[in-house]
Structure formats: structure tokens, C-alpha cells
Design brief:
single chain; alpha+beta; 2 domains; five-stranded mixed beta sheet; 4 helices; 14 strands; about 15% helix; binds zinc ion
Length: about 200
């Protein structure tokens, strides 16, 4: 069994002043983890350049993604259950129609091999993990849902949803097939509950 990570190489810079404020108020200085309040409501994200036509984009240098509304409609009505969404503003502060920022409410952990980095943040106390190859998800982290949100951007869809998408119609989507494993390769039986 596999799932499909849809992410992108496209990105768009955020406004420098907006980013300084966001980093100061919403990111841990020790590990870069986002304030948990963002998983309930997202602030407006101000961009410094125009978005291209990509179905999915990143708001650099945050870990927030941007999705075109017309592509989001194809995914599933589960999208809003899985992700909190917000507005992207252009360089003049005007909301960009047809696109929205998004962040998983409760991220799924994309796991990695034995060399995956793990530590405890000495600032916020959270468990910090960066998956090293090979990437996969654990069967136990999947439910009946057809969509999942990895913490570093993009959308994970199950095969049934993936088969409904004609990705030749869209630009800027990078597909990564992720195997579903029963057992972890990183030696971590269970992630601590304060992971996010
Ligand atoms: Zn931290």
C-alpha cells in the first residue's frame, strides 16, 4: 500500500517585514516549530511577489503552503477538516483571489530511516524530528481519512483520491509516492504527544 505526497518546487517570497513579525510571534527560536494557535486559525500571509499558476506553492521561508482554490475543490471535502486555511495577500496587502494558505490541524508524521534526526528543543520542550531517507508513513498513523497533512507542506492523499486527479492539467505539483509500513525504521516506537 502507498499514499501520495503532493507538494511543489514552486515558492513565493513573503514580505520581509511580515516575515520578521511572523517569526517573532509564531515560531520557536530554538527549533522553528509553529505556535499551536496557528493550527486553529491562520493569520493573513503577505507575499512580496505575484503567485505563479502552480496548483500548490510555498510561502517562503515559512512552512505554510498555498493552494489554488480550484485545485483544492478536486481533493475532497475533507480538506477543511484536515487543514486550517487562510488568506494570502499580495504586496499591496490585497487578498489574492482563488488561492488560500493552508496548514494541517494535526500533522501526520512522515517517518524516515535510522539516521533521521531527533532531539528535544531546549526552548519550547517539543520533540523535533527530521526524517532521513527512505521516507514512508506508518500504517498506524492512517485512519479512514483520504487526506493527511504533513508538517513541512503539501497534501498526502490516498490512492483512491490520487487516481481521480488528472495532474497533466496542473502545473507545479511534485508527486512523491510514500510506502505505508507496519514497523518504523527510525527506532521510534511512538512519538511523544507534544510533537506539534
Ligand atoms: Zn522549539
Amino acid at each position: 500500500m502507498e499514499v501520495y505526497l503532493l507538494d511543489t518546487n514552486s515558492s513565493c517570497d513573503t514580505d520581509k517585514q511580515w516575515w520578521e513579525e511572523f517569526r517573532r510571534t509564531s515560531e520557536c527560536t530554538g527549533c522553528g516549530s509553529l505556535d499551536r494557535r496557528l493550527r486553529v486559525a491562520l493569520p493573513d500571509v503577505r507575499l512580496s511577489e505575484d503567485l505563479d499558476q502552480s496548483a500548490i506553492n510555498f510561502a517562503r521561508p515559512t512552512s505554510l503552503s498555498i493552494i489554488r482554490s480550484d485545485f483544492r475543490e478536486l481533493l475532497s471535502d475533507e480538506f477543511d477538516r484536515c487543514f486550517v486555511t487562510g488568506r494570502a495577500l499580495n504586496s499591496r496587502g490585497v487578498p489574492i483571489l482563488g488561492s488560500m494558505t493552508f496548514l494541517p490541524r494535526k500533522p501526520i508524521v512522515v517517518r524516515g530511516g535510522p539516521d533521521s534526526m531527533r532531539r528535544w528543543c531546549d526552548q519550547c520542550g517539543r520533540f523535533v524530528y527530521f526524517a532521513d531517507l527512505p521516507l514512508y508513513v506508518l500504517e498506524s498513523s492512517l485512519s479512514e481519512a483520504s487526506l493527511y497533512g504533513p508538517d513541512d507542506g503539501g497534501v498526502i492523499v490516498i490512492e483512491r483520491v490520487f487516481r481521480t486527479l488528472d495532474l497533466t492539467m496542473w502545473t507545479g505539483i511534485n508527486v512523491v509516492k510514500l510506502p505505508v509500513r507496519r514497523e518504523p525504521l527510525d527506532g521510534i516506537a511512538e512519538f511523544p504527544s507534544n510533537f506539534y
